[in-house]
Design brief:
about 130 residues; mainly alpha; Actin-binding Protein, T-fimbrin, domain 1; globular; CH_dom_sf; F-actin_Monoox_Mical; coiled coil; endosome; phosphoprotein
Length: about 130
């Protein structure tokens, strides 16, 4: 078996990442994730993922789905500060344009790895 046959296909990777997003956000009633576009359009899904890992950083229940700018900026700032994941997405583009599925997927994949590394480092230091 070659190493390339061990790697998931792009579609499989998308499905796995979407499943991770669903699992991480399952306790957030205002967030339902089924895709990488419209379900991330107001920033709450990003905030829910970040809040799951860093619940003391902000009060998720005070967020407003209509305040997209704040939601995106908050999620990206905390991800950068706490998990060292730099924003690959531009808030203005997300608010005023269409969400690009591949860009959102790429950021979420980077976020996934950053958060997993953060958790591993936290366990090693405790």
């Amino acid at each position: 078996m070659t190493s390339s046959s061990l790697r998931p296909s792009y579609k499989e990777a998308q499905e796995r990442l979407l499943k991770w997003c669903e699992n991480v956000t399952r306790n957030y009633e205002s967030v339902k994730i089924r895709n990488f576009t419209t379900d991330f359009a107001d920033g709450l899904a990003f905030c829910a993922i970040i809040h799951h890992y860093f619940p003391d950083e902000f009060d998720f229940n005070k967020l407003n789905r209509d305040n997209k700018q704040n939601n995106f900026d908050l999620a990206f700032r905390i991800a950068k500060e706490k998990a060292h994941v730099h924003p690959l997405l531009d808030t203005d583009d997300l608010i005023h344009g269409e969400l690009d599925k591949k860009c959102v997927f790429t950021y979420l994949l980077t976020l996934y790895h950053g958060l997993k590394n953060h958790q591993t480092n936290k366990l090693l230091l405790s």
